[in-house]
Input
Amino acid sequence: MFNDGRSRKVIFLAHCFLNQNAISDGTADYPTAHRPLVDFLLDHNISIFQMPCPEFIYLGLDRGNIHGAESPVTVENTRIRREMQKAESDRKLDSFADYVVSQAKEYIANGFEVLAIVGANRSPNCGVDTTSDDNEEIQGIGLFIDKLSNRFEESNISIPFIGLKAADDFSIKFNTIVSKD
Output
């Protein structure tokens, strides 16, 4: 099964790397997508699964603050984090995490390699190495990535998590996964 032209390799990518128009106001680094990252993945025959953006879905494009871009990024991200920690938002995060894990399980069950989960560092939801809290960027994990990590662990699925910012040299961070080519 699936003995056609597909690579059978996929990476799960934070929504904003493919859609900068969904990112919170004042934080976009590219006009559309993180083209160097996308080109790199495609050049290595790695398909891209775009994870949902919990902030966009739950708080909207303006994240519930039409003046968000007037605040320092970490201050606005802390406000967003607080909104996403409310009970209703937390339930939605559970639902999003379940959805992503179910997709990964389907790929794995059919012999595909899920090479990594890639989150956006500094994000209150998708940060892997750093997140925003207490009005600063701190070492730690975002709310959504934390739920994903727990769900994968509960399912006994080991997939590396990689955190990126737009300015990072992602080729170094992806060295271990592209060496599987």
User: Anything to note?
Assistant: Helices lie at 15-18, 35-43, 54-59, 73-84, 87-109, 143-154, 170-173, 175-178. DSSP finds eight helices and six strands in the chain. The chain has a mean pLDDT of 91.
